[in-house]
Amino acid sequence: MRVLKILAAFAILLVLGAGIFVAYAWRSAIDPVDPPAQTSFDRALVARGADLAAIGNCNVCHTAPGREPFGGGLGIQTPFGTIYSTNITPDPETGIGRWSEAAFIRSMREGVDREGRHLYPAFPYDHYTLVSDEDNRALYAFLMTRTAASSTPPENELPFPFNLRMLLAGWKALYFREGPFQPDPIRSEEWNRGNYLTEGLSHCGACHTPRNRLGAEKKDEYFAGAEVENWTVYPINGNSPAPVPWNADSLTFYLRHGWHEHHGASRGSMAPVTANLGSIPEADVKAIAVYVSDVMGRPSQERIARGEAASAAARKESEAPLTVRATSTGNRVGEAIFLSACQGCHDGRRPVPFGGLNLHLSSAVNASNAQNIINVTLFGLPAARGEPSAIMPAYRGVLNQDQLVSLLDYMRERFSDQPAWTDTRERVAATMNGEREVPIYRMDGTTQAPPETSMRTTSWP
């Protein structure tokens, strides 16, 4: 009898707890509206929204190959399954055409859609919550003046219980803190602007900060680097692997142009970011650079000295006679491949971006793992469409696994003072066997498959 009473009490508590959680998690729907006429939006507001959408890289996640820009359907791989991005064009049936401005702002601020469903944090509302209502209105105006695309994304591929959206309310209780952004009164206006853009729309931490088992950013490892789309996202704190330390000026140039003479060209998931930032006002790019360089901190004298030594080594090689400049490391196979296939471009004689970066200056060679240089060596850097850009041939099908490992080991030993990589062979095998799917972007931020989604080609009525 006593056991039955305990079980009954437990059942009652369970039901009450579930009821309280449901009440906490429930969000009401916002009534649909008739799609607003595109001509109802102020052109200046739309133009500002275009800049903000570029800063937020909205086109990158909300456009899938073969679909219309912003039409959704891009599969985003997560440890919990695949989440497909939504259609954010003004199509009234499959997009957000019947969303009011209030519904749009709620989705950005709270991570809840018009129907009241919690959104998965693959949509980075933990960053977007910082965006001001004024900027959200500009984004809404921009999106509602895009070409409406009748496009229904596939259903998310998430196993139980991750397919239960209501459980996201628990995730939010643990990890989500609603905005808006609060400026630091003791910092400059430019620094605060950079903080607002970096932590908000740019959501840099979404890629540059590692995540815990529940998919939340590890705040104690802020900007410490991660892996995204099987590219290594470098730390952008004091642990940056760049041989020459970044500063606000070099970051500004790189973010705006997609390359820098001491850091090479953007590639992988960073290529769409720099392509988009190349279309916005320079003051916003500079503000982001000022903030990020402050997070990186002032480099130590030892770090500065290492950068100077790397620059000096690069200059020495570029000024040496045009002969085979072998540096024996005992790795004859890797050395022979480098001298025959790589040195002709990477000798530093032709400046970046149209020449290869001297590898004494390479973050990839100095990184904690070889994944990025594996990707670039195998798949190359495809040329941008309709504009000058960096380019590199792909060596997939030319080098076998043993040859590529030897080449990577040689480059690490010759051009870096860091210890040897320990998992290069495993990474090479997984990438060459297709276990690691690697998206390849042009320098203008577009993929090798249609459509062209760079913000540079975005038009509005």
Brief rundown of the structure:
Helix content is 42%, strand content 4%. It has helices at residues 2-25, 43-55, 58-61, 101-110, 125-128, 133-143, 168-175, 189-199, 205-208, 248-257, 270-277, 282-296, 301-319, 332-346, 363-366, 371-379, 401-415, 424-432; strands at 75-78, 81-84, 226-228, 231-233, 259-260, 264-265.
Descriptive overview:
The protein is mainly α. The chain folds into two domains: 29-166, no CATH class; 191-439, no CATH class. It contains 18 helices and six strands. The strands form three sheets. A two-stranded antiparallel ribbon has the order 1-2. Strands 3-4 form a two-stranded antiparallel sheet. A two-stranded antiparallel ribbon has the order 5-6. Strand 3 (226-228) and strand 4 (231-233) form a beta hairpin. Mean pLDDT is 87; it is low at 448-461.
Which SSEs are present, and which pair or pack?
Blueprint: H1 2-25, H2 43-55, H3 58-61, E1 75-78, E2 81-84, H4 101-110, H5 125-128, H6 133-143, H7 168-175, H8 189-199, H9 205-208, E3 226-228, E4 231-233, H10 248-257, E5 259-260, E6 264-265, H11 270-277, H12 282-296, H13 301-319, H14 332-346, H15 363-366, H16 371-379, H17 401-415, H18 424-432
Antiparallel strand pairs: 1-2, 3-4, 5-6
Helix pairs in contact: 2-6, 4-6, 8-12, 10-11, 10-12, 14-17, 16-18, 17-18
